[in-house]
Design a protein that fits this description.
514 residues; Rossmann fold; pyruvate-formate lyase- activating enzyme; binds cobalamin; binds iron/sulfur cluster
Length: 514
């Protein structure tokens, strides 16, 4: 059986290895189905896509809501060029809307939840021509002989993550992704928190929270280091410090391995302390990402149900700064339930934090999240359904505000976005206002932290990227980096940011509110 696994995407919008598909591929191989190819739609040429589609018996497509339009046209294309191929969809969107994938988009099968069990079972049944007993495959949706959608049994989530084989990385080599030099890693599945912007979708999608053993995760990192020379790893988990005994054991193992590996990932202010950070740094932790989300404690606790103490956020950023750990902060504006003042508080709060990078997203109510429930209840939603495929990119790229509350609507959110670009640019930051989620780099701090070697390496990397992609922001990045490397050497300290932030006159805020 010739299998093709596809991650949907758009040309030029590069991500990294899709761990879900790599993990399914490893399980398929373990069960004897080794004839597998992979396609990343953001990278593959049209010729390669057509060739692989035509030479496959079963095609598995991984879909997030943002790339639903691409997925829909891909399914139509498969049905045109290779009508005998079986199309199976899976991933975040099909998990949330499994029937729709079969009924409306023409998938032959859809898997809700994790695919490591369901897909190999389906492949086996197809290979053995025994497709009359599919009902027992957890999470599988399809049409029976009479055309009715069969929902099968509930998704299966393995408790023991160590029993999965390591993801098969050869299918989507890291070096095919421009500018990417790290390996994605997953130490857990799902998330124990219940934030309103995310839950219950993620819980349904990824099942109960489970952790791999520290030994198993370190073994995979060592293997990636040996096999591919990988030295930098990015953990996708929602909170690496959730279990103190786990993170301590993990760090001890890495220190003992003496391999000089580096890693980064999400930490949360309610679970991390300075001692743990010190140990993590010793074990190679160099990049801390934090979902800070809002500058208003009320919004964090009530509208978002995150219970992250903002005072502690500031301390953690300072501890990281002292330890030389690079910090990334994620914020949201336009959160359902926040006031206009609270939205501006977020901008002012972000300005006082000595972060290395940050990004601002529009807090959109994605399907089946707490945000969607509250917005629907209160009549705030500007879209009545998720059928607007033509808007998916804007919506899920964070460009478009989808709600109008009693206090504000898309126009106000856009004014706040412009304010963010203006204020942070004035502070010497590099802000990419063209992107929906507006990533920003603290250039003065970042440039002053770079050694000459890292500085020239970065220049070379972004120059090559500019030559390859012709993206203007690569050029702007280069110019800012050079400017700040020479103008701000050793100059940047927290105090600098506090003073800068204070000097922003209150009237700027007032003019936005009026
Ligand atoms: C890491 C991550 C990323 C990374 C890497 C993405 C990639 N190429 O894999 C980055 C940062 C690049 C990213 C980008 C985006 N992401 Co993201 N991401 C995640 C995160 C945190 C982990 C994903 C992961 O690797 N999980 C571990 C693996 C093992 O699980 P998995 O991918 O879900 O795959 C399993 C199942 O879903 C299923 N499965 C998946 N595909 C298929 C296919 C078939 C055929 C079958 C049978 C089964 C199957 O089996 C897999 C193995 O068990 C999730 C949240 C989460 N915890 O899942 C969000 C999440 C998937 N991302 C999300 C979003 C919105 C995005 C973006 C659209 C953001 C943006 N605005 O650009 C893009 C889209 C990228 C893309 N090409 O699809 C949403 C999706 C919501 C939705 N309804 O679509 C999630 C769920 C977060 C959230 N709660 O909002 N993301
Ligand atoms: S937003 Fe992050 S921390 Fe909150 S529930 Fe979702 S994955 Fe977990």
């Amino acid at each position: 059986m010739r299998i093709c696994l596809i991650i949907t995407g758009r040309k030029g919008v590069y991500f990294n290895q899709p761990l879900g598909l790599c993990s399914i591929a490893a399980e398929l191989k373990k069960r004897g189905f080794a004839n597998i190819t992979g396609i990343d739609l953001s990278i593959a040429s049209e010729k390669e896509i057509t060739r692989k589609l035509m030479n496959s018996d079963l095609i598995g497509i991984s879909i997030t809501t943002k790339f639903l339009p691409e997925a829909a046209s891909l399914i139509r294309r498969i049905k045109a060029v290779n009508p005998r191929a079986i199309v199976v969809t899976g991933g975040a969107h099909p998990t949330l809307f499994p029937e729709e994938m079969v009924e409306k988009y023409g998938a032959d099968y859809t898997v809700a939840g994790e695919g490591e069990f369901a897909l190999p079972e389906l492949v086996k049944a197809v290979a053995e021509n025994d497709i009359n007993n599919l009902k027992d495959i957890g999470g599988l949706y399809y049409r029976d002989g009479s055309g009715q959608i069969v929902t099968g049994s509930p998704p299966i989530f393995y408790k023991d993550l160590d029993s999965y084989p390591f993801p098969d990385r050869d299918l989507f080599p890291v070096d095919q992704y421009p500018g990417v030099d790290h390996y994605p890693m997953a130490a857990s599945r799902s998330c124990p928190y219940r934030c309103t912007n995310c839950q219950p979708a993620l819980k349904y999608h990824s099942g109960p929270f489970r952790l791999r053993s520290p030994e198993n995760v370190v073994a995979e990192m060592l293997l990636l280091n040996e096999r591919y020379g990988g030295r930098m790893f990015s953990f996708i988990d929602s909170d690496l410090t959730i279990k103190k005994s786990w993170i301590n054991a993990f760090c001890e193992l890495l220190i003992k391995a003496k391999r000089d590996l580096f890693w980064g990932g999400n930490i949360r202010a309610n679970t991390v302390d300075n001692d743990t950070l010190k140990l993590m740094k010793q074990a190679g932790f160099i990049r801390a990402s934090m979902g800070i989300e809002s500058g208003s404690q009320d919004v964090v606790n009530n509208a978002l149900r995150k219970n992250i103490p903002l005072r502690k956020v500031r301390s953690i950023i300072e501890w990281c700064d002292q330890l030389g750990i690079f910090t990334e902060g994620y914020f949201m504006i336009g959160i359902p339930g926040e006031t206009r003042e609270q939205m501006l508080e977020t901008v002012e709060f972000a300005k006082t934090l000595n972060l290395n990078t940050m990004s601002f997203n529009v807090g959109n109510p994605y399907p089946k999240t707490g945000f969607e429930i509250i917005s629907r209840e209160r009549g705030w939603l500007l879209l009545d359904s998720w059928d607007h495929l033509e808007l998916m990119d804007e919506i899920f790229g964070g460009h478009k505000c989808l709600i109008r509350t009693d206090q504000w609507g898309p126009e106000f959110v856009n004014r706040v976005k412009s304010k963010i670009v203006k204020d942070f640019t004035e502070m010497g930051w590099f802000v990419d206002g063209n992107l929906g989620f507006m990533p920003a780099i603290n250039y003065p701090k970042f440039a002053s932290q770079l050694t000459w070697y890292r500085f020239f390496r970065r220049i070379a990397k972004h120059l090559l990227l500019f030559i390859k992609t012709r993206q203007q922001n690569q050029l702007r990045y280069l110019i800012s980096l050079i400017k700040h490397r020479f103008s701000n050497r050793n100059a940047v300290k927290t105090k600098f940011y506090d003073e800068k932030a204070r000097s922003f006159k209150k009237k700027k805020v007032n003019s936005l509110l009026s």
